[in-house]
Design goal:
Helix 3 links the parallel strand 9 and strand 10. The chain folds into three domains: 170 residues, 3-Layer(bba) Sandwich (FAD/NAD(P)-binding domain); 114 residues, FAD/NAD(P)-binding domain (3-Layer(bba) Sandwich); 67 residues, FAD/NAD-linked reductase, C-terminal dimerisation domain (Enolase-like, domain 1, 2-Layer Sandwich), CATH 3.30.390.30. It starts with a strand and ends in a 6-residue tail after the last helix. The chain is globular and about 60 Å long. The longest helix has 15 residues. The strands form six sheets. Strands 1, 2, 3, 4, 5, 6 and 18 form a seven-stranded mixed β-sheet that branches. A five-stranded parallel β-sheet has the order 8-15-9-10-11. It has eight helices and 25 strands. It is α/β, with parallel strands linked by helices.
């Protein structure tokens, strides 16, 4: 039985950052890392952004020194026994640990369309599959108007491909953006050449030789599209079964305290899978973004290695949509009250998200270098009104 001072379940961005955190305090402690993918850790955001703008594949690899790390790629941990501090993997081997980190993340949600040719876009191999299809194909259906869908539709179009963007809501990014901004994005994407189909869903997808026949049902009509590939970004499913079967506290994710410990003090959780109390927003949250993965991962590594600390980071996220780009901090939810302070409507400005007079989130739309200021604003008690927020952050 192999023994590790630190056993990390997962081999993505959170796990990689945890190694950095551990090594900042413990240069020699043994680390075992188990990941289902065949690749070592890489940055996910470039898969739908920079790699489609000409960056080399080599730029995604994180290249963290793994001295003293036993890396088990293509091997998952299938069960944990907290009482004996052991974990069993998919090869049938059992490993003991002193501290264990759950960095299992999420998996793409799949549609019941009965075809395995749909690319549920998340991994480096998904990028390679789509890139290969674009070498010969020209028309693609993209399902979903959220992060993945909006970014992939833009990426394909910028590479001289036709993208047909299908989503059930009214506007692109409708869960995040105020309704008028989301609707404006529809028009912006159409100007760029994207076929935008709101209030629509894909109801069937079948192969036709090397192509796909996709049936799209709208509010009042139905259409068929013969395309060279189908990409879906329709949400995620939490990889939480391992934690639940181990008997750990679970509430929309693996529940952790301010040191990112689970209900078992020798087991920690971080990244997409962890539900944590956000001291700035004063609520329990689970965040699926790069900044959260990196900050939680590095923090939990230091704590596992002996540092006494409290996790207080307020995560941010970002996206690129053709020439538009944004950074967002806090709770950016279109169901909240919003106030948009535009320098140029829908092209540059700041959108504030409020609840009961307090700023809960800030969307920096083509406005840069203001994440720290936005974070400070969210921490203020208020009360705020549109009048007091106008011009509060530089635009």
């Amino acid at each position: 039985m192999a023994h590790y001072r630190y056993l990390i379940v997962g081999a993505g961005m959170t796990a990689d950052s945890a190694v950095k955190g551990i090594r900042s305090r413990d240069a020699e402690g043994s680390i075992g890392m188990f990941g289902l993918e065949s690749h070592a850790a890489y940055d996910r955001p470039p898969l739908s952004k920079a790699l489609w703008k000409g960056d080399s594949e080599e730029t995604v690899w994180r290249k963290t020194p793994y001295d003293g790390v036993e890396l088990h790629l293509g091997v998952g941990i299938e069960s944990i026994d907290p009482s004996s501090k052991t974990a069993s993997d998919s090869n049938g081997d059992t490993h003991s640990y002193e501290k264990l980190l759950l960095a299992t993340g999420v998996s793409p949600r799949r549609l019941d369309l009965g075809d395995d040719g749909i690319i549920y876009y998340r991994t480096f191999e998904d990028y390679r599959r789509l890139r290969e299809l674009t070498e010969t194909g020209n028309r693609f259906v993209v399902i979903g108007g959220g992060f993945i869908g909006s970014e992939i539709a833009a990426a394909l179009t910028m590479n001289d491909k036709q993208a047909i963007l299908v989503f059930p809501g009214e506007g692109i990014g409708g869960n995040l953006f105020p309704a008028d901004l989301a609707r404006n994005l529809n028009a912006y994407y159409e100007e760029k050449g994207v076929v935008v189909l709101p209030h629509s869903q894909v109801v069937s997808c079948s192969r036709r030789g090397e192509q796909f026949l996709v049936t799209i049902k709208g509010a009042d009509s139905e259409r068929e599209e013969l395309v060279d590939g189908v990409v879906a970004g329709v949400g995620t499913v939490l990889n939480g079964t391992l934690a639940q079967e181990a008997g750990l506290d679970f509430d929309q994710g693996v529940k952790v305290n301010s040191s990112l410990q689970t209900s078992d003090p020798n087991i920690y959780a971080a990244g997409d899978v962890a539900t944590f109390f956000d001291p700035t927003l004063q609520e329990w949250r689970r965040v699926e973004h790069e900044d959260n993965a990196n900050s939680m991962g590095e923090f939990v590594g230091r704590v596992m290695a002996g540092e006494v600390a409290t996790f207080t980071h307020l995560p941010f996220f970002y996206s690129d949509l053709f020439e538009l780009g944004y950074e967002a901090v806090g709770d950016v939810d279109s169901r909240l009250e919003t106030f948009a302070d535009w320098t140029e409507p829908f092209r540059e400005g700041v959108v504030y998200y409020l609840r009961e007079g307090r700023v809960r989130g800030v969307l920096l739309w083509n406005v840069w270098d203001q994440v720290p200021a936005a974070t400070e604003l969210i921490a203020e008690a208020g009360p705020f009104t549109p009048e007091t927020l106008k011009g509060r952050l530089p635009r």
